């Protein structure tokens, strides 16, 4: 067992007022921390003497400077104990303390697991935890973000983990193409009692389609449905667009039918993707059918179809008209 830390538990008599001892203020501690010649032992000795003073007032800015200073010098154990004791002083560690502390841990090269345990020893509030996690993810230190989530025990934190705590990291993994990490985090969500929403599943489906296969994305879709998560129009747009681009039009149409059965309504973006699929596969009569459906659904005004709009979807308007005339013999009703 290591030696006790004297700056935490005063073990000697406190100086009496008027006893000739100079009072050590928070400003004195801050000056010592800012002094480039100071070392952790000197700063801790000064802090020890300060907290033993009768009536010493603990101030958060002192801890905001002291703790990152200690972490930069790799005094992790001392920092962790101080963090655990801060609430006893009446202070509440928030983002103003946790963000610079995380930055110091990263700068010092503290291993992710150790840094996560250190940060969690502060018992952050729900808002402080969210801010800290978001800061780490935005800083691209995904290993630390993952450790922070894995070691976050709701019973100890005092609040439950929610979708937002996982979703940002899942999306970040997906943008980097780290499929396995994203899948593992989705599994961890389930173990933590958190159900991924459609947006989170969509991010993973897109990544699997792009970095593995469309069939892999479709298997994720089936898993998503089996877990009781209702796909949205983006889910279907993603899968149908990629299936159609691979020439799997029948599968695309079957998925469209399933989408309607599930009560998911198309939007303009979905129709654009569907038209692109049919154009890619030269199914111009189907393009016309979709355009007519769009007009019925109110996505096209009563003035007819603008050539510019159809060109944006990747097909010449003359081809659409020719296809329709050859099949039906008239285009007049459709264009009105």
From TrEMBL:
Keywords for the protein's UniProt record, in alphabetical order: Repeat
One Pfam family from the record: PPR_2
Organism: Dendrobium nobile
Ranges where the record places region Disordered: 1-23
PPR repeats: 162-196, 197-231
Classification via InterPro entries: PPR-containing_protein (IPR050667), PPR_rpt (IPR002885), TPR-like_helical_dom_sf (IPR011990)
Family, similarity comment: Belongs to the PPR family. P subfamily.
Signal peptide: none
Protein name in the entry: Pentatricopeptide repeat-containing protein
Comp. bias (Low complexity): 1-11
NCBIfam families per UniProt: PPR (TIGR00756)
């Amino acid at each position: 067992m290591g030696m006790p830390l004297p700056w935490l538990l005063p073990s000697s008599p406190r100086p009496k007022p008027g006893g000739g001892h100079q009072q050590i203020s928070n400003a004195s501690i801050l000056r010592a921390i800012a002094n480039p010649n100071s070392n952790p032992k000197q700063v801790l000795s000064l802090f020890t003497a300060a907290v033993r003073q009768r009536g010493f007032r603990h101030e958060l800015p002192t801890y905001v400077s002291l703790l990152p200073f200690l972490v930069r010098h790799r005094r992790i154990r001392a920092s962790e104990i101080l963090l655990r004791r801060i609430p006893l002083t009446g202070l509440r560690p928030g983002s103003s303390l946790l963000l610079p502390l995380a930055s110091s841990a990263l700068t010092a090269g503290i291993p992710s697991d150790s840094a996560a345990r250190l940060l969690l020893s502060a018992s952050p509030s729900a808002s402080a935890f969210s801010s800290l996690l978001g800061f780490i993810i935005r800083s691209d230190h995904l290993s630390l973000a993952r450790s922070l989530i894995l070691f976050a025990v709701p019973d100890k934190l005092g609040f439950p983990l929610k979708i937002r705590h996982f979703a940002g990291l899942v999306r970040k993994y997906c943008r980097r193409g780290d499929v396995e990490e994203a899948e593992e985090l989705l599994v961890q969500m389930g173990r933590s009692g958190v159900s991924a929403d459609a947006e989170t599943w969509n991010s993973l489906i897109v990544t699997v389609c792009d970095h593995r296969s469309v069939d892999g994305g479709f298997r994720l879709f089936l898993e998503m449905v089996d877990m009781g998560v209702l796909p949205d129009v983006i889910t279907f747009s993603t899968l149908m667009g990629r299936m159609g681009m691979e020439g799997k039009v029948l599968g695309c149409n079957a998925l469209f039918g399933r989408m309607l059965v599930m009560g998911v309504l198309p939007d303009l973006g979905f129709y654009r993707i569907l038209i692109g699929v049919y154009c890619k596969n030269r199914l111009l009569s189907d393009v016309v059918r979709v355009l007519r459906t769009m007009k019925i659904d109110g996505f096209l005004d009563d003035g007819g179809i603008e050539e510019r709009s159809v060109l944006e979807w990747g097909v010449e308007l003359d081809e659409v008209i020719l296809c329709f005339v050859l099949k039906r013999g008239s285009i007049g009703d459709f264009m009105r």
